[in-house]
Amino acid sequence: MSISPNVPDPQESYHYENLGTPRWIIVLFAVLLVALGLLAYAGYSVQTRLQQEFAKSEEQNKILTAQLDQANARLADLKGQMDVTSQKIGLTQAELADARSRAESIRKQQTASDQRLSQEISAAQKESEAKIGAVATDVTGAKKDIEATKSDLEATKSKLDRSMGDMNVMSGLIARNHDDLEELRRRGDRNYYEFTLQKAKTPQRVGPVQMSLNKTDPKKSKYTMTVLADDKTIEKKDKTSGEPVQFYVKGSARISPYEIVVFDVGKNQITGYLATPKDTGAGAPAAPAPAPAKP
Fold it and tell me: DSSP 3-state assignment of 112?
C-alpha cells in the first residue's frame, strides 16, 4: 500500500513527541533551581550570621578571659593580702599576749613595790616618832641649857663693868679674861684685838697700832709700855692690870678713845686686848717703828 506523501506517518509523530522534554519537568527543574538558590542563600545567610555570632562569641570570650585573668590576679592579690593580714594578726595577737604578760608582771612588781613602800613609810613614821620624842627630850634639855646659859650670861654681864680710864674718860665694858673678851666680841660694840706682848726692842703690831713692852712688875701687877700711833710715841707708865689705858688717834677724838686692858702681868710679858671704836674702822695706820738709837 502506498502512502501519500502529505500524510504524516504516525510512528514518526510519536517519535518526535517522545524526543521533546515535558514542560512540567522544566518547571519542576526551575522550581528546584530556585529552591536550591534559596536554600543556598539561606545557608549562606545562616553561615554568615553564625560566623558573625561566632566572632562575637570569640570576642566576648576574649573579654571574659581577660576579665577572668584580672579577677584571678585580684584574687591572688587578695589572697596575698589576706595571708599578710593573717600573719600580722597573728603577730598582733602574740604582741598583745606579750603586752598582757608584761602588764601583769608590772602590776605585780608595782604591788610589791607599794607594799615595800608602805612598810618603809610605816618604819619611817615609827623612826620619826622616836626621833621626835628624842628631839623633844633634847629640846627640854636644850631649854634647861639655855636657861643655864642665860644665868651664865647674867653672871658674865655683872662681871663686865665700866671703869674710869687713865684719861678720866669712862671706858666701855671691860673684860677681865679671855672668856669675857669673847662675850664682848659677841656683843660687837667695838673692835677687839687680843695680844700677848713680850718685852723686846722691836715694837709689835696690834690691830691698827704698834706697842712695845718696856718693863713689868708681876708682884704689883704693874707694867710700862709705849704705843706708836699717828707718828706719835705715847708712853704709859706704871699701869695696873685691869685698868683701861686710853689714848686718842686721828678721828677717834669725836667718838671715844682707844683702850688697852691687860689681863695678866708676868715676867717680861703681858696679856690683854686693844679696843677701838667701830666708826673709825680699823683705826689710823700705825706709825713705823723708830730706828733703834745708835750707841
Answer: helix
